[in-house]
Amino acid sequence: MADHRLTDHPILGPAPAPRLVTFYHDGRPVQGFEGEPIAAALAAIGIRALRTTARRGEPRGLFCAIGRCTDCAMTVDGVPNVRTCATPVRAGLRVETQSGLGEWRR
Ligand code: FES
Q1: What is the pLDDT of residues 52-84, one digit of tens each?
Q2: Which of 5, 36, 92, 98 would be a feasible disulfide site paired with 102, CB 3.0-4.6 Å?
Q3: Ligand 1: distance of its center to the CA of 60 in Å?
Q4: Is residue 5 in some structural domain?
């Protein structure tokens, strides 16, 4: 898949060398840079639907990107309703597309 990350910002300059780590999206291993928001890592590999709505099952994804709207809520390591635009990637994380209000899984 194409990588759409910004590597050389016109004002900030080149990005520091990132550390690529493996985490899991719906049980599949995927890679992202340690510390980048989960939603950004998923967007970079073409995954845009992060949850589905409770009533109609419609897909939702990154919207405000600042932790305010909850459209990016996913189940992370068994905890539902985690705002993935404000939660950093770390190795071994288990991220699941959330259906409706989600369920606690431990
Ligand atoms: S995109 Fe709005 S809270 Fe994450």
Answers
A1: 999 999 999 999 999 999 999 999 999 999 999
A2: 98
A3: 10
A4: no
